[in-house]
Amino acid sequence: MKNRTKTALVAVTAAALLASAAQAAGKLEIFSWWAGDEGPALAALIKQYEAQYPGVKVDNATVTGGAGTNAKAVLKTRMLGGDPPDSFQAHAGQELTGTWVVADRMDDLTSLYKSEGWMSKFPKAVIDLVSYKGGIYSVPVDVHRSNVMWYQPATLKKYGVTAPTSWASFLTTCATLKAKGMATPLVMGENWTQQMIWESVAVGVLGPKGWNDLWSGKLKFTDPRVVGTFTTYGKVLDCANKDASGLSWQQATDRLLAGQAAFNIMGDWAAGYLTTTKKLKPGTDFAWSASPNTNGTFIMLADSFGLPKGVKDKAEVMNWLKLLGSKSGQDTFNPLKGSIAARTDSDLSKYSVYSQSAAKDWKSKVIVGSMVHGAAANEAFTSGFGSINDAFVSNRDAKAAAQAAQDLATKSRIGM
Amino acid sequence: MKRLSTDRLWSMLVLAPSVLLLAVFVYGFIFRTGYTSLTDWGNDPAQAFSLKPIIRYIGLQNYTDLFTSSLNVRFRQDLVSTLFFTVFFIAGCLGLGLSMALLLDRNPKAEGLWRTIFLFPMSLSFIVTGTIWRWMLQPQGGLNQLFHLDPAKNEWLTSRASIWGFDWNKIPLLTAVVVALALLVVAYRAFQSAQRTRMLVALGCAALLLIWALAVGPNVKMLPAPEMHGFNIAFIGIIIAAVWQMSGYTMALYLAGLRGIPEEIREAARVDGANEWSTYRLVIFPLLAPITLSAMIILGHISLKIFDLVFAMTGPDNGATDVPALLMYITSFRQNALAVGAAIGTVLLLLVAIIIIPYLFSQFRSQEGHS
Questions:
Q1: Can you give the pTM of this predicted structure?
Q2: pLDDT over threshold 70, residue B371
Q3: Which of A192, A336, B46, B255 could anchor a disulfide with A102, C-beta 3.0 to 4.6 Å?
């Protein structure tokens, strides 16, 4: 009996030693907010990583909460506390560069881009977005489009209208629909979905160049053209539901499906919701077009991962980033998440009907970054703009909103 | 004598760890937050999370900005909202709690069951309460469905209307008038109790304040343009949920108080010819006054620092239902303006202190009286 205990003890100790030896072979902590619907896509990537690098223990440190509301706060306390995760998710663009790169917390990945031959595989606009003062700081793994207008062909047919291609015709269509008894032709949800509408209006009114000038400081928010974006946005809001702040984007989409509204402007994650959750057929049950005036433009947002300074498992992180940027890694992840690959050479046969059309646009349209989703402006601005939007929805004062946005831009050092 | 000192030594030894922990993790951090709020940490995004951030001391600039800068409209609305929320929340809890306690005090059937039912919401956390009530008050769901109400007209949490609006620029004026009126009351009381000097000082101060309010006050401009703040209708939904959660607690307090009143006192009142209502008005309610005070203090500080209920019910992005604690979180962790976040936190602490400190003083005084 005693002997048995001893052997058992020895065996357990040996196993523990072996396990720790395996751990010593490497570990990798991946910090993200991909839980729920996005979990399986991340799990598939991790599985692929573990198959390629056996012996590395992957720690999937997910903090739940949509769009990273909670994860970002946790990340900030960890970074300030000197305990950075090996690799963390951040929206490509200013959300990463304006917070972490300017603070000198990230390593330059230019050599990785050169050795993997990525300079020609990612669109230049995307590389510019993740660059800061000559260095490249993260690897975008997926791309979403934010300027998509969704509708049901059946509803439009019933009311005898077509999907408008400019904001002017949108307002006419809205008046027609209202006259025919549809109270709210446009359905929108909580604050950030409203800001996406402003973003679509602004890109439509200012054009891609004007939009980029806004973020480089060449165009002031107090410019009459920018004030005009708020005026138009206000008119568009008149077409929308008043109880928006109580609705999630899914609930807003549900109203579209119920025929209570004709249009909804939402990022292309809506395609996943409509096809997977609602089991609808793209093209017949629901259809889409670029939001008015933005047919030639692709407002993008992307998730990316970088290499924080001072992590212990640098080699493992580099392997992880290589996988993220590779064609096979992106084509494993994106069909499951409902996004498209940031690379332009992905295997489109793996993607849904909607994603195939989005991937086509990705290669052919002018790419600009989304403000709402952290690509065009830093967090100080994006967060403050939420309050400005909220005030504007209440008081509809275009001049005041533009002035406040300019004050905020100055304070957040936009374009400096 | 010797035994006493070993006892003392022991008590000090036992207390030391918690005193130390409190000193560091409560008072040390309060001090640290207070100091951070006087710096510019995070006002430049590049310095917010820098490894070696350059943090400058800028004095009270963050506070001045919060109360007067055009970018901080939301903070000022939050202060006003908190004030209204606190008043309605306390009034609701006290009113409902007292009524329930009075009903239960009449010994209804299955009293224990009722007590459990009324007290039950308190066992839930604000997050759970918030989630439940959000479902119930949603435009398309819950109450509106149940009573066939028009979701477009019954905007429990989504209304953008505001009532009882006033101009933020008038705050110095209003404060002066209110303080002057309070001083006049003090003067009147002093007059009644024939304290001459006290009356004269109070009258003098009141007169000075009123003269200031009439002559200088209207010309003081904190902001270049008028800025209206008021009670946001959307808060009604949140007040309902908060009252639902906490009124059971005030009921329990009141019930304990009612049960603590000896039957003899009621009988004595009856013998003196008091009817039911005047027994309550003249005998029982005055005896419950200390309980009301404790309940107000506890509910008051809950309502000033409320965060989770609002977060669960309307999320962090609704200006109409925002509170300072939520704004502090967003400012610090989303906007990365750590110093401004600390300043909001300090303002919150001062607000809570205004409620708690007088209470603590009165407690200390009464304890000293006993010993």
A1: 0.86
A2: no
A3: B46
